[in-house]
Amino acid sequence: MDSTLIAFERAIKEEGVKPYLVKLLFLSVVYILAARLGFSLSQNFDHITAIWPPSGIAMTALLLWGYHYWPSIFVGAFMINSLMGVSPSVATGIALGNTLEAVTAVFLVRRFILNGEILESITGSVMFVVLAPILSSIIAATVGAGSLVLSGVVVSANLGEAWITWWIGDLMGAFLIVPFIVAWRTQAYREALSGHVYEALALLLIVIMVSLLIFTQPPQSPESTLPFIYVLFPLIILAAVRFTQIGAVTAGMVIAISAIWGTLAGTGPYAYSDVTFHNLFALHFFLLIIMLTALVLSVAVYGRIRSEQAVIKQAGELNQAKIQAMRNMELRKDLQAQMNDATSKINAILADIIDGENSTKRTPPKAQSR
Q: Which of 111, 279, 281, 365 is exposed most, by the fewest CB atoms within 10 A?
């Protein structure tokens, strides 16, 4: 406990108290606004929604900024639930569950994924989906739904439906928001757009038009409308291949927004049932599959591109080393030639000296006069 507090204090001191407080307030405000958006989409329950963006915002904040921002999540969750009319004790329980969800998700990501890089490898991406959205959301769903049932806000007979709705909402919020923010925040991923902005905008426009066309159709039988959703697969795959992680998360976000909005409005392929919960459950399963496919494919393409760049870089370095080695050999030859020339001159000088001494010895001395 002491070590945790020391680490908490050290993180705040390193960042600065004032910047920390400003970001703390900013995160709480963003959390509340995202929660208001989530509650506006609620159907069967007033305090539970099938899409909960704050879960993704909370996980992203702790993943990028650190654990010491957990008070923002707790305060934001407590405030929004209090505004929704629940008692302070229930709001405290829900806020505790939401905070533990985000902290647990980030802990698992940093513990089992190298450097917490969720978009760098296929293994990391799949583990992120399993550890953060799927497993960690169980905590918030259990604590939150349990608090509502114990307080009488939700009847015990609806506990199962309330728990599943909460879990799916947090799951999809995390799955949509976290990769989206991480991808757009990372400079290496944004480089995929360099030189291809118009192509990216054209593809984005096509994805928007096709998504709206599919999910604004009047509800009909599943047999006549569900086949149209397969048109989205080649589009999001193309986005993943051409623009890697940026393309996958952006196209996926557009499809998700169009699909959720259309389904809640009673249009599109997944509005075939009178029970909105069943429609959203089927829709979320579809979104999970299509986005996971695109995300894994984009990471694989990004890995191949990095490998090619590494090979090209290594080839360039080897070529430079070869050129330098050849220059060194030529320089060595020049030095050897100069040394040979100098040696020859020295030998010649020594030979002249030796010849002079020999000639002096051979010359007889002059006779001395009497």
A: 365
330's tokens? 């030529």
Q: What CATH number does the domain located at 1-185 have?
A: 1.10.1760
Q: What is the enclosing helix (H) or strand (E) of 363?
A: none
Query: How far apart are the C-alpha atoms of 255 and 249, rounded to whole Å?
Result: 10
Residue 234: burial class (beta carbons within 10 Å; 0-12, 13-18, 19+): exposed
Q: Calculate the alpha carbon distances from 202 to 208, 223, 306 in Å.
A: 10, 31, 25
271-318: per-residue pLDDT in tens? 877 777 778 888 888 999 988 988 899 988 888 887 877 788 778 778
The predicted-structure confidence for 234-249, as pLDDT tens digits, reads as follows 999 999 999 989 999 9
Sole residue written with tokens 């099938």: 50
User: How do the domains of the chain map onto residue ranges?
Assistant: 1-185, 188-364
